[in-house]
Amino acid sequence: MSYQEYARFSRRTQDVSSAAPRSRADRPYTGSLSSFSVPRRSPLHSNSSSTSSTSSTSISPSNSASQKLGGLSPTSPVGDPLDTIRQLKQLELGAEKKPNLIEATLPWRPFYLQRRVLACFAVAFVGLSVALEALLGYSTRNQGLVTTSEPGYFVWRLAPTGILLLVAAVWTRVEYQAQHSAPWLRLSQGPVAAEKTLLLDYVSISRPQVIFTALKNRDYVVAASTIVSMFLMVLVVASTGLMFIILVDVPSQSTPITTQTTFVNNGSALASSGSLAFFTMLGLQQQDLLFPDGVSSSFAYQQFLSESPVGNAITATVDGLSAGLECEVARLGLSGVQLGQSSQQFNTTFTAGGCNVTMPLISAAFSRPAGAAANQTLYFARFGEGSCANSPADRRMVVVFGTETFNPRPLPTNSSTANMAVNGTIPRSASLLCKPTYAISQVEVTKRNGVVVAVDPSLNGQQRALANIDAFAIADAFFGSFQNGLADTYADTTPWFYQPAVVNVDPIMYLALEYRLRSAGVAISPDALLDVNILQDVVNDYFQQYVPLLASRSLMEPSSTLITAVATGQSERLVASFAVTQFIVVHLAVAAFLTVAVIFLVPKKGFLPRNPGTMLDVAALIANSRPLLQTLRGTGGGDVAMLKERLAGSEFYTGVEAYEGAGSRGSGWFKIFGTQSSQGSPTYAKATDAVSHPPLLHPLYRMTAFLALVGLVIGLEFTLQTSNKNGGFEDVTDEEHRHVLWTILPASILCVLAFYFIASGFSLRILSPYSALINGAAFEKSISLDLVDKAPPVVLFEAIKSRNLAVGGATAAAFAASLFAMFASTLFTVATVPTTANCQMVIGDFFAQSNGQANPEVCGACQNGTVLASLVLNGNVSYPVFTYEDIAFPSLSLANIPADMRDLPDDIIVSATVPGVRPSLECRSFQQSELAVNLSLSEITGTGNPMIVTLPFTAGGSTLEDNTVVLNTGYTLSDLDDPRKLALDPNALFGRGVYRPVTLDNNETVSRWIWVWGQLENAGTSQTTVRTISALTCNETMNQFSFAVRFVGGVLDIDHINPPIPDESTQVQADIDIVDNLQYDDLVTLPTPHLFDPFFMSLVSSRFAVPANALAEPSSPSVPDAITFQHRLIRAQIINTLSRRPTPTGADPNILTLPARLIATSLDNGAARRVVQDTVSTRILQALLASVLLFSIASWLALPKTNILPRSPTSIASIAALLADGNIFGLLGRGAEWQPNEDLQAYFKDGLHVTMGFQLGWEKLKRRRRDEREAAWGERERDEVFAVFPMVSGM
């Protein structure tokens, strides 16, 4: 029954003949007298006169409202007035006239329910399934995806969960639009009960309820979309266990490395190589040092840098230089024996293959030494050089070993005759004429844990030589390296390992024979060396080892080149779980199937004039549905039960009814039609404060969630500390299910909490427009606000823009919570955790007063500590055992080792607190103005231009000599014999260190050192002047500390990555003699154009060097620091070699025993595979949890009161009930449902174009005249209603 019929009938019963005005015939309410409640004319630019095609064909659904007037005839006699009014109410709520439905194009349908969008999702699900299967296949074929050390490790761990999170987040739009539009879609399909249309609410119930209800109502699109959404949530949790770490045997695979050196085709460095190779060889064979990087027993090879996991081997094919001797057996000829004033000489020639080389054998010890038996055989050995027929172009290296007899005839006692012929023979000998050779070929260098473990020739046998490097240039450098004072101590001596036999050797043969002793374990008997084959093996092996030491320093230069190496060994790799992959793939396949099914179920065309996303949109859609609105009057403040009571037994559908009047244009009235049951006078909802909170926004639930957040932050910290303390939680093998459980279970807990904050944030977004209406809000912040059907980033942006802290905080909290799952996937992982065990370290010696004697196995006259120091500084060798930088430790051994760790592999760690000694220097610097300099200049070549530098009395010396240092500023006479020393820089730097002890009054001697350095002008000439000069003096003492030390391997090498840490509180002075047992002249000499002693040569060239030009800067602090450090390092090696004493027999074992801890770092030596908690992931999760807490608290504070609505505003009837008693409909023009929001907003503006505000609350309802009669008949005068009302601007 239309409103005009009701008006005409109502007036007819009162004998009123005038009809109601047609202009308001189809409006549900009469406009009030206020300016904002008068209906407005449609804006000129509106689409109320739409050109949409219409039809006059009547469309009547099978159960359309075509019933009669329920027995009440317009011509029925009028009875009792009260009965008449009741009949009219029944008629008002009863059947309408048959609607004049027309065909009209309805433009709106949900975007995410369009078939092309759903098809994209189906393709995405299938694509993800295929990608996961491919990923699993790749992981299976390659024993994993990446190693844990590769940069992409965390990307692989986080990406699967992140991708599924993104897909799930986008799919929620599909789910929401399906649930939200389902009642409207059902209305468009014909009359259906209110429970399945107007009262239907899928949005506010849980997903399991949605699925059950949707299947019951045959809303298969809703059920399918919700099932897919639940699948995706489950898959997000499951994906955290998709990847896990196992230890696998890595097959040979390519890996990039960078070479650091290359061979150079330039012999200049070779010609001035100095004696470093000699020192290095000496250290290798006498001090058991390791080969420096770039050198093996047979090759000098390119150094390279690789970053391989611990335990893995890297094999690189690089260039290597090898050398050898091509020898011919020579015949020795003796032409005479001569006796000199201080030496004896055998005039010998060596002939082989047409080459005749003259090389005399000279010695000061060929005569029988004192104490030798008369019949004792005297042996000799020499390694020298010569040329065939004295031709420089045809050179040879000469090796000879033999026996000799020397019988000088009696000479006058006053004779000064030199080179007198005497009797002598060489009864037996073995001699060789050799040519040096070298070649550069490819070698395979294998490193493990940064240490070279093998250097082997490559199968590629191609060899080459350097065009500008002759083999004899290498031989010259070989012989030249023995031109130093330390080498001279080996000349004309018998090696210690042959004594008491007499084997007179030169330095080369001394060290060659000792090299064979070190490598073979026993010395070769002298008689065996008379075999030319054995003799050739000895010298060839030595030369083959020695030349790489020369080449590594003189024939190579820094270079950086990227090449490919081969990695083998064990590695922690990230692998894909078969079970989890198949679980995800199956669910994605089901999701794809359900999505395809939805494609066939969603409407192909639109079914609404507009998107019903806001209150304004719903108002526009139901504005013409007068019977429905009248039915819902007074229910705005009621609960769902009241709505069900009002709409019980009714069926509804939507349609477009043609405008009345022949001249009317437009799309027609969009209405909700219904067949409504008759009911008596309705009951209005009563105003009450007992309104419930939305379930998820209840303060109790919120506080519980907040406490859970705080508990998780604390719990994560507790478990992290437990993991760090105990080395993880439990031992695991590579069983897949254990790894998966340790990731999925924590992720499940975190995701439950995340789902709460996501859902509560969604509820708050629904509630936001209504909370704004409670206190009154602007148009765009209330009835036209849609924060639900939008992406969270858009919602967050709009919330920030509108300063909506409640929604912004909740959305930010939901976003942060959604990341829980991603980082839960990396929270717990499996790692190789070191295992520890207690043991003991036994001290084998101690440091005491030095005996000042060198090791007899090295040489009888040299200070071998300086050899070690030179090698550490300049030879690129590691520190000798039980020393590190300037620290010397007593020798140690392990005891009480657990049975399962007694193998002591190379990578085991031993941690202990060990006593050690280190020198201490108390120093004072002096600038040029404080020094007295006396430079003596001479025109005579070879005088050296001595410079006397005198320090002031404050330098600490007792006498003038104690404070004086003499330096040569030019050439000395000995320098003139060595052309290599004549290349002096005109602006040469100079530096010298001297020992100047001081005797105190108590006769105690203080070790004191003076260093002087600076720069000259016109050096080496008679115009030499001093440009700059500085000095440093230091008093030296020895102190003992307790050091926290980490040793590596069973040989107890000190861990250079974690150097010893001293406990300064344990410092005591050590009773160690450091007087007069360190000579800088024993250090290696290096070529230099400057005037440096060996100490300063190392100072500017060692691995700890300062730039040479720093010596010319008087105020440079780096020079004193470098001087003191280098001196302490040298002193530590002197102490190491000269001051050790064995522990006395019967010493207290408690003093000699130190507690230690074994740390097994690999599975081979006892380490375990354990579940550990990742620190980075823990900190990220704690930050996310804290941010969720802060954002949520801010949101709650911004909107503390959420119990503002009597029911959820997510059904059509619920929103309509809030609008039914308001005055919004009186402001909407005709065709509002077809108009965009911009046009609708114009209805709510006054003449000043100010948009009115709106308010939600209880208000007294003004009754119509006909209702006032009811009051006269005894009924109540007014009802109070809960509704949305417009507010006049300015209110």
Oligomeric state as shown: single chain
Number of helices: 29
Number of DSSP strand runs: 41
How would you state the average pLDDT, rounded?
A: 82
Shape: elongated
Classify the helix fraction into a percent range.
Answer: 25-40%
The helix-and-strand class reads alpha+beta
Low-confidence stretches: 1-96, 411-415, 851-862, 1271-1277
What is the percentage of strand-forming residues?
Answer: 15-25%
Cα(first) to Cα(last) distance is: 39 Å
Largest sheet: 16 strands, mixed
Rg over CA atoms, rounded to whole Å, is 51 Å
Outline the secondary-structure elements.
Elements: H1 3-12, H2 81-93, H3 115-141, E1 146-147, H4 153-187, E2 192-193, H5 207-217, H6 220-239, E3 243-263, H7 268-271, H8 276-286, E4 300-301, E5 304-305, E6 313-339, E7 344-352, E8 355-358, E9 361-363, E10 378-387, E11 395-407, E12 420-425, E13 429-448, E14 451-457, E15 463-464, H9 471-480, H10 485-488, E16 502-505, H11 507-520, H12 532-554, E17 556-576, H13 578-601, H14 615-622, H15 626-631, H16 640-647, E18 651-657, E19 669-675, H17 699-726, H18 736-774, H19 792-801, H20 805-818, H21 820-824, E20 828-833, E21 835-843, E22 845-847, H22 864-874, E23 883-884, E24 887-888, E25 892-895, E26 909-926, E27 932-935, E28 946-950, E29 964-968, E30 989-995, E31 998-999, E32 1005-1017, E33 1025-1048, E34 1053-1054, E35 1061-1069, E36 1091-1092, H23 1094-1099, H24 1118-1138, E37 1140-1142, H25 1149-1152, E38 1153-1160, E39 1168-1173, H26 1175-1198, H27 1212-1220, H28 1237-1242, E40 1253-1261, H29 1265-1272, E41 1279-1287
Parallel strand pairs: 10-16, 30-36
Antiparallel strand pairs: 1-17, 2-18, 3-5, 3-17, 4-6, 6-7, 6-12, 6-13, 6-17, 7-8, 7-9, 10-11, 11-12, 11-13, 13-14, 13-15, 18-19, 20-39, 21-25, 21-38, 22-37, 23-24, 26-33, 26-38, 27-28, 28-29, 30-32, 31-32, 32-33, 33-34, 33-35, 40-41
Helix pairs in contact: 3-13, 4-6, 5-6, 6-13, 8-12, 8-22, 9-12, 11-12, 14-27, 17-26, 18-20, 19-20, 20-26, 22-24
